[in-house]
Amino acid sequence: MKAKLLAHRKERNEVGHITELKAWIVPVTEHTPHGLKYSAVYIVNGVRVIGYDNERGKGDHRHFAGVEKPYAFISMAQLVVDFNADVTRYLEGDDNESDL
After folding, report:
1. Structural domain tally of the chain?
2. 52 belongs to a structural domain
3. Is residue 40 a contact partner of residue 21, using CB atoms and an 8 Å limit?
4. Strands (DSSP E) along the chain, which ranges?
5. How many other C-beta atoms are found inside a 10 Å radius of the C-beta of residue 81?
6. pLDDT tens digits, the chain, 100 residues: what are they?
7. 1, 49, 57, 96: most buried, per Cβ within 10 A?
8. Residue 100 maps to a domain
9. Is residue 98 part of a domain?
10. Is residue 60 in some structural domain?
11. For residue 72, what are the domain limits?
12. Nearest Cα to 48, choosing from 83, 4, 9, 3?
């Protein structure tokens, strides 16, 4: 089975920050136990400040304020909720990773 694009959305806000979400349906493997490959990023001035992905060999994880931690993937819907919450926290100036 080839990867099948599930979603791809890229937006630029009024100050030029980029939000991009990509997700593919892939075969279930040890690296993709939920059958999804995904990436969600928030980019400010060319720098990723928030990211969620499941890079091969690393599994599900998130990047926030320069810190990478495992992410407990539940569903794409929950990932979008969690990602948007992190973007809101960042925009409100709360980049304290210890709160998570």
Report:
1. 1
2. yes
3. yes
4. 4-12, 18-25, 36-44, 47-53, 61-64, 67-70
5. 12
6. 789 999 999 999 999 999 999 999 999 988 899 999 999 999 999 999 999 999 888 899 999 988 999 999 999 999 999 999 999 999 998 766 554 4
7. 49
8. no
9. no
10. yes
11. 4-92
12. 83
